Write a sequence for this structure.
């Protein structure tokens, strides 16, 4: 299993960014995918989940209405569109695969760093 | 709900340590608890799922449990090694399928 995130970078407060995660090594369309972030020196914070069919999408309250998750199973990719960014959104963003049967994140990417400046 | 972990713990090599994860509302047994290890500069790795199950490849020095009386989950690491030095996070979920992480515990193996 391999998950490779991209799209991070430096953006000004109020700006937008789109993260991508390309997956390989498993049946992507059968797998729920998640985004989890980690601010510098801080703990893990779950951001959003999307089911294999995109039928079920869930967001953390902290980003609801500003971030939007989507996926393209043909491209084996999951995306996170981030709008109205604030300094508090500065973090490493990880793409993570949920196990099929359990509420567990069994595989993680290496993350992509998003830095929001004032 | 929230999951509260001690900020840091420390112990000597060869010893046993237990890290707690306390749920502030709702029953700890209502939703399974998972544990992740994050070494410095690395991504998290799942160490325990469904309260006490170990993924293949995780040493049996790692074990998980829950205690309803304290409304807490526990990660126990026996035979501590310097390579166990890392941050450990507990994780559960609510009825709306929102994932919840504890604040993390920094383990130092002296």
């Amino acid at each position: 299993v391999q998950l490779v995130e991209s799209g991070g970078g430096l953006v000004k407060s109020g700006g937008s960014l789109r993260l991508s995660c390309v997956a390989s090594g498993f049946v992507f369309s059968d797998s729920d995918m998640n985004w989890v972030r980690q601010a510098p020196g801080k703990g893990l914070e779950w951001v959003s989940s999307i089911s294999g069919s995109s039928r079920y999408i869930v967001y953390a309250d902290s980003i609801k209405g500003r971030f939007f998750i989507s996926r393209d199973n043909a491209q084996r990719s999951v995306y996170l569109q981030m709008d109205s960014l604030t300094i508090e959104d500065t973090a490493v963003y990880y793409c993570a695969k949920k196990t099929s049967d359990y509420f567990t994140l069994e595989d993680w990417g290496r993350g992509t760093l998003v830095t929001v400046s004032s | 709900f929230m999951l509260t972990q001690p900020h840091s713990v420390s112990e000597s090599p060869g010893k046993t340590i237990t890290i707690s994860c306390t749920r502030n509302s709702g029953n700890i047994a209502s939703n399974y608890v998972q544990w992740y290890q994050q070494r410095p500069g690395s991504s998290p790795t799942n160490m325990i799922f469904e309260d006490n199950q170990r993924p293949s490849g995780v040493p049996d020095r790692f074990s998980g449990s829950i205690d309803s009386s304290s409304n807490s989950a526990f990660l126990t690491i026996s035979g501590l090694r310097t390579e166990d030095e890392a941050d450990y996070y507990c994780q559960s979920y609510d009825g709306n399928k929102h994932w919840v992480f504890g604040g993390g515990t920094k383990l130092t193996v002296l």
